[in-house]
Structure formats: C-alpha cells, structure tokens
From TrEMBL:
Keywords: Membrane, Transmembrane, Transmembrane helix. It comes from the Bacteria. The chain crosses the membrane at residues 18-35, 41-62, 74-99, 119-138, 150-175, 187-206, 218-236, 251-272, 279-299. InterPro entries: Acyl_transf_3_dom, Nod_factor_acetyltransferase. The keyword Transmembrane applies. Signal peptide: none annotated. It comes from Prevotella lacticifex. One of its GO terms (molecular function) is acyltransferase activity, transferring groups other than amino-acyl groups. This is Acyltransferase 3 domain-containing protein. Pfam families: Acyl_transf_3 (PF01757). Residues 14-296 form the Acyltransferase domain. The lineage of its organism: Bacteria, Pseudomonadati, Bacteroidota, Bacteroidia, Bacteroidales.
Amino acid sequence: MGGTRSATKGKRIDELDLLKCLFILLMIAFHLAYFGDGHPYVKNFVYTFHMPGFLLISGYLMNVDKPVRAFARTLLWLLVPYVVMESGYVVMASVLPIRDHISGLTPAVFLSKLFLHPLGPYWYLHTLIICRAIYYATFRWIRLSTLSRFIIIGMAFYGLSVAGLVSAGCVLYFLLGAVVRQSRQPFLSIFHGSWLAAVPLLVLFLSPSCFNRESLGGVLIVYLTISLALAAFPYIRRSRRLWLFLGRNSLVLYIFSPLFTICCKAFIPFLAFDGTRMLFLLVSLPVCVGGSLAVARLLDIVHLSPLLFGRKRSLI
C-alpha cells in the first residue's frame, strides 16, 4: 500500500500496482468472514502470501535517503489514519458481537490495543510504521556497513516479535524487500514472471504444512505467487486500467473496506442457498470496493482528505 515509485527513476511501476491490486482484493475477499469460513483451506493458503507480499513491496519501495522532515511527514500520514481507524475499531469491538469483541473497555485496554497490540485488520499499518521507523533510523544515523545495519535491523525486529509487538513472519518480508532495494537491483530482475511458477505453486498448495510465512515453503509461496502474477500481467489488457487504479489506491481500500465487510453480513440470509458462497463473494466484493472508493471520493469532495491522508485527494 502506498506509492509504487521506481527505486531509481521515481516512476510508478505498473507491475507493482498489479500485485497490490491482487493482494488487496484477496485481503478483502477473505475478510468477508462468511466467505472465508466456507473456504478455510484456501484462506490459509492466501494468508500465507497476501500481506507478506504487501510488506515485501513496502520494504522495497521505501526510500531511506529522504530528509528527516520528509520521512517524518510520510510516517505521520500513516499514523493518522491508523490511529483514527484503529480507535474506531476498538470502540466498535466493545459494543458489537464480533469475533474481536472486547468485554469491559477501559482506557488501559484502549491504549494497549492502539499502541501495542492492534485489534482487527489495522495491524498492518502498525507493523509498517514500526518497520519504516527502525529501517530509516538505522540507515540514517548508524554509520556501519550495509550488512551490519541489516543485522541490527534484524535483531530489532526479532526483539519486537519476541515482545509480541510485531509478527516475525511479517517483518521478515519487509526486511527482504529492503535488502532487495539496497542491492540496487530492480524488483523485476529479482522477481521474474513465469508461467512455470504454477507447477511448484500447485505442489505447495497441496502441502498445508507449508502454509507458514516464516518457513521456506512460505517464502517460496510468496515468490511463486508474485512470479505467476507477473507472468499474467502482459495479458491483462481490457481491465488493466482498473487493476492499476485499484492497486494505486490499495491503501484507501485497506482502510475503508472493513466498514463494508461488516455490512455485507446482511446478504447472508438471501444468498445462503449457494453452498459454495461464491455468489456471496461476487455480490460483496464489489460492494466493499465500490463503497471504499465512494467514501474516499466523499472525503475529497468535503475536503477532509488532507486531515486523514495529508494530501488534497484520497484517490490517486
């Protein structure tokens, strides 16, 4: 989520926007609890790669050469939507009978969920803010070799994972993305598109023991999924502009889609006749995507986007 600018020329990389579109649509699809509960095996497989893929791209795209002021501004405009949306989610969880329900919300519990142990879908922003801050600080102020810096970052990430503040299986991918960036190699020279990726990916799909982000199998699933998606990219023509638009605005979809995944539960009584639950997905996914874009557009119209995202327009 966020920008997909080239590491060298400052131009958008369409292939990364494609990946972000794929990952955000899968995230929304399996945040629809009724659909996800009906396909637990596929859900576990998708959860192995979709958010790690986002963190990998985020690590690759982050520019540690930014001046401190510019970096602080970037971090601030991740923090603001995180605080607003996570606060709302925690309060909602205390009054609604959802899976993350909180019994007896107190100021201490609220602050714990907000700053230490995020509740619900907004953990990604919490993790991203921490990863970016540590990565930037290390490369900005520690005068050691690149390898030594990455060792320090890895130790910091490990310590935070042991403390339960981040997931080791997620920060690993941000770190891998940063390593690719510092190698000065273009993303597409490391991640090659290949239809042959489908073969080992199918083998891994049939091996649920590999559905672990921290395992070698998990890393391979992430790499092969990206490879397969990149192989398909040249063949996406008619809908390419839509895919790229959604990829550019994946942050908006990520932030606002939970508002609609909850509302889509209202469709269940009318669509329960479909045992595959695919009809529910086909109805709910456009509602979540369209609703999120509509909210972002409304913020643009009433000039609230600068307060939430620090820019004139929410939609890019």
